[in-house]
Design goal:
Blueprint: E1 3-7, H1 15-23, H2 27-35, E2 39-43, E3 49-50, E4 62-67, H3 70-73, E5 81-85, E6 89-94, H4 111-118, E7 126-127, E8 136-142, H5 145-156, E9 161-169, E10 175-178, E11 189-197, E12 202-209, H6 216-223, E13 247-255, E14 262-266
Parallel strand pairs: 8-13
Antiparallel strand pairs: 1-4, 2-3, 2-4, 5-6, 6-8, 7-8, 9-12, 9-13, 10-11, 11-12, 13-14
Helix pairs in contact: 1-2
C-alpha cells in the first residue's frame, strides 16, 4: 500500500498533476482517489485534511499526500436507507459492510460520506453515533455542527435509549443482565428472549445497553455462552464464515435537544436477523 508525499513548489501545477509523476498513476486515477478521500493536504506540520478537488488552489510550502490502496478504492457497499429526515439531523439504516468512519486510505464507504453525496438536498453530514462495520441498524447523522454537538452530548450523558436485536445460538433465558467489565471499564447490558426456534436452536434476543463500550454486546453475549451468529471475532470456531453478523440496532429514543420533542425510531421487522 504505497504512500506519496509531494511538497508544493509551484502553485501553477494542480494537485493531480503533482501526484501523477511519483505515483505513476494517470491524472484521472488521481482524481478518483481524491474523490474517494485518499488525498490529503498539510501545511507547516499541521494536521492533515482531505483534498477532494483537483483544481483546489494550493500554497507554497504545503504538502500533498496520496495514500493509494486499489483494493480500498474499489470497494463498494450497499446503500444506506433514509428512515427519517428531521432537518438538522436525519436517521439512517446503516447496512452491513458500511463504515462509521474513514481512514487515510479513503472514506467513500462511510455512511456520512454516502449521505453527503446522495441525500437531497445536499448537506454536510456529521457522525453522531457509531456502529461496527459488521453491525447494521439505526444511526444518527447531524447536518450542522451544533446539532452534532447536542446529539453527541445526549449519548455521552446516556440520555438516549438504544435497543438492539441479535440472533444467537442456543436457547436464551427469558431475561439476562450482563455486567462483566470491558477493557477494565464498567459495562451493562440487559437482554431478553424474543423468540426461539427449537429446530434451528437459535434465539432472537433484544438487548438494551446502559453503556457503550467497544463490541459490548458481542462480548457480553459471547461471554454468557450465546455467541451472535456470524460473529467471526467472538463466535465459536465452527461459526459459518458465509453469514454476516446478525446484530441490528433497531430502536432509538430521546428528547430532541433542538425542539425538545420526544423522538423515537424503530426499524421494521424486515430489517431483523432472519432465522434460517
Amino acid at each position: 500500500m504505497p504512500e506519496y508525499h509531494v511538497e508544493v513548489t509551484d502553485i501553477s501545477i494542480s494537485a493531480a498533476q503533482l501526484l501523477t509523476q511519483p505515483s505513476g498513476l494517470s491524472k484521472q486515477q488521481v482524481k478518483q482517489a481524491m474523490k474517494k478521500g485518499a488525498v490529503w493536504v498539510s501545511e507547516n506540520g499541521a494536521s492533515h485534511r482531505r483534498l477532494r478537488r483537483a483544481d483546489k488552489h494550493l500554497k507554497l510550502g504545503q504538502t500533498i499526500h496520496l495514500y493509494y490502496d486499489l483494493q480500498v478504492l474499489e470497494t463498494q457497499v450497499t446503500p444506506a436507507v433514509l428512515i427519517k429526515d428531521e432537518g438538522d439531523y436525519s436517521v439512517w439504516y446503516k447496512p452491513y459492510g458500511m463504515f462509521s468512519q474513514g481512514t487515510k486510505w479513503g472514506d467513500h464507504c462511510t455512511i456520512n460520506r454516502w449521505v453527503e453525496q446522495n441525500h437531497q438536498p445536499q448537506r454536510p453530514a456529521f457522525i453522531v453515533n457509531r456502529l461496527d462495520r459488521a453491525a447494521q441498524g439505526l444511526m444518527l447523522i447531524a447536518h450542522t455542527k451544533a446539532a452534532a454537538t447536542s446529539l453527541s452530548r445526549l449519548f455521552e450523558q446516556r440520555q438516549i435509549i438504544k435497543t438492539y436485536t441479535a440472533l444467537v445460538s442456543g436457547l436464551f433465558p427469558e431475561t439476562l443482565f450482563l455486567n462483566s467489565p470491558i477493557d477494565e471499564q464498567h459495562a451493562a447490558s440487559h437482554a431478553s428472549l424474543l423468540t426461539y426456534d427449537g429446530k434451528a436452536k437459535l434465539s432472537l434476543v433484544r438487548v438494551t445497553i446502559e453503556t457503550g463500550r467497544k463490541h459490548q454486546i458481542r462480548k457480553h453475549l459471547s461471554g454468557a455462552g450465546f455467541a451472535i451468529i456470524g460473529d467471526r471475532l467472538y463466535g465459536s470456531k465452527d461459526a459459518s464464515l458465509d453469514t454476516n453478523l446478525c446484530l441490528v440496532s433497531t430502536y432509538l429514543a430521546f428528547t430532541c435537544p433542538i425542539t425538545c420533542v420526544e423522538k423515537s425510531y424503530l426499524l421494521t421487522d424486515n430489517y431483523l436477523p432472519k432465522m434460517v
